[in-house]
Amino acid sequence: MLLFYATHDGQSRRIAEHIAGRLGQAGIAVHPQDLSSAVPAPAALQAGLVIVVAAVRYGRHLPQAERFLALCRDTAIRLVLISVNLTARKPGKDTAEGNRYLQKAIARHRLRPVLAAAVAGRLDYQRYSWRDRQMIRLIMKLTGGPTHSQACVEFTDWTAVDGIAARIAALHAAG
């Protein structure tokens, strides 16, 4: 099993590490790998299960995740795709069917994941550059989210992440 992540502000890494910890408790050793360090060669993806935890920034998954997902196109890789985005904070937006970013990535790369889910990220205005802060505040205003420039909101549902990890463990056990 391989576990990769693409993160901008660290939340996707935290989610990947949390999943790795839960899998470790189930006796499945996996080490999260940062896609910004290097995109693995397709031959390296012959693991039984490949997990990608990818952050969305301004409507698209991060470039390193997009490059990686392009490698997975039309392959027999057993892929688990977890999209980390603030849209997933809303009910029904945490599934492949309900999350537009996840739908677009799956269609764009012609993927057939064995599991696809969206997880809400973390909103931390103080960590963003001035430009990012303004853009994200505008997006939050349009979508009914918090806009106070000092807001820091953990939207990640860690219980849901535990559930995803349990589903991954079951997929691993099923071979």
Structural description of this entry:
The protein is of the alpha/beta class and 175 residues long. The protein folds into 2 domains: 2-121 and 157-174, Flavodoxin domain (Rossmann fold); 123-155, no CATH class. It has 5 helices and 8 strands. The chain has helices at residues 11-25, 63-72, 100-108, 130-143, 158-174; strands spanning 2-6, 32-34, 50-57, 60-61, 79-84, 115-119, 122-124, 152-154. The strands form 2 sheets. Strands 1, 2, 3, 4, 5 and 6 form a 6-stranded mixed β-sheet that branches. β5, α3 and β6 (115-119) form a beta-alpha-beta unit. α1 (11-25) crosses α5 (158-174). The longest helix has 17 residues, at 158-174.
Average pLDDT, to the nearest integer?
92
Counted up, domains total 2
Tally of helical segments: 5
CATH topology of the largest domain, which one?
Rossmann fold
DSSP summary, beta strand count: 8
Give the structural class: alpha/beta
Shape: globular
CATH homologous superfamily placement of the largest domain = Flavodoxin domain
The major sheet is characterized as: 6 strands, mixed
- The CATH architecture of the largest domain is 3-Layer(aba) Sandwich
Beta-strand fraction estimate: 15-25%
